[in-house]
Amino acid sequence: MLFARRDIEAAAAAAAAGQDDSSAAKRSKPESPAGARPTLTRTEGLAAAAVLALFVAGIFLAAPRREFDQILRLPRSLADVRLLKENLAMYARDHQANFVLGYCSIYIFMQTFMIPGTIFMSLLAGALFGVVKGGILVVFTATAGASSCYFLSKLIGRPLVSWLWPERLRYFQSEIAKRKDKLLNYMLFLRITPTLPNTFINMASPIVDIPFHIFFAATLVGLIPASYITVKAGRALGDLKSVRDLYDFKTLVVLFLIGSVAVVPTILKRKRIYE
């Protein structure tokens, strides 16, 4: 009887100890982030605020004069670009600051919400401001618009991207995982070459955990070659018959050669590792 009582007391003590350990484990276990809503970091928040301020300034401070209200439109074709060039040349010259603010607002809006037609905006910049000024304007506004799209996608874009491009998103995620140590080089390659659409890169980058500083740097530098080609073509709108003429076989080869330079360090590093 005495041994039975001891056995009962020992079992009760063991059960109590197990319960205490279980409670401690539950307290020490971090909460699952599955239901957490994604948020912007401080740097991303400041960048988003700057882009929003530029957009608002363009809307409220750069409203066109009354005589130009009837001719402003989003260019959808080369004919629209030619018409805008003829009608806006004087306005862009006399009210350059107002025009640039308005241009930035429209470009950012189109990039943020994936509205087609930014290539025509780039042609218009080249036609009105030349290669150097137009190129700087296009690279700046394209980078700002892409950043705005990045922020929007990080907050609410995951379901949309997963629905629109499920296979492409899985491929992109696997490629990013392989290149964590040389992510900037890979992103530069993607920006310079037409391997993946820029709209997809803007939307998918925050979902596959590409840091904003890498996304921003790759976008700012990687868009320069394509922007130069488009802006330069804008100087000769009369000779341009189709948008397809911008990216012929020769141009694509040049872009891929430039993009290949960005991934050379990664290839060399892998070669050293294997050796």
Features:
single chain; 275 residues; mainly alpha; 12 helices; disordered N terminus
Task: Write structural notes for this entry.
This protein has 275 residues and is mainly alpha-helical. 75% of the residues lie in helices and 0% in strands. The chain contains 12 helices and no strands. Helix 2 (42-61) packs across helix 4 (96-112), helix 3 crosses helix 5 (118-156) and helix 8 packs antiparallel against helix 12. The longest helix is centred in the middle third of the chain and has 39 residues, at 118-156. The chain is globular, with a radius of gyration of 27 Å. Mean pLDDT is 80; it is low at 1-8 and 14-34.
Flag low-confidence runs.
1-8, 14-34
**Average pLDDT score:** 80
Strand content: under 5%
**Global shape:** globular
The number of strands is 0
SSE-based structural type: mainly alpha
Main beta sheet strand tally, sense and closure: none
User: Number of helical runs?
Assistant: 12
Concise description?
By secondary structure, this protein is mainly α.
Topology of helices and strands:
Layout (H helix, E strand, L loop, with lengths): L1 H27 L13 H20 L16 H17 L1 H17 L5 H39 L1 H7 L1 H13 L4 H10 L5 H7 L7 H11 L1 H11 L14 H26 L1
Helix pairs in contact: 2-4, 2-5, 3-4, 3-5, 4-5, 5-6, 5-9, 5-10, 5-11, 8-10, 8-12
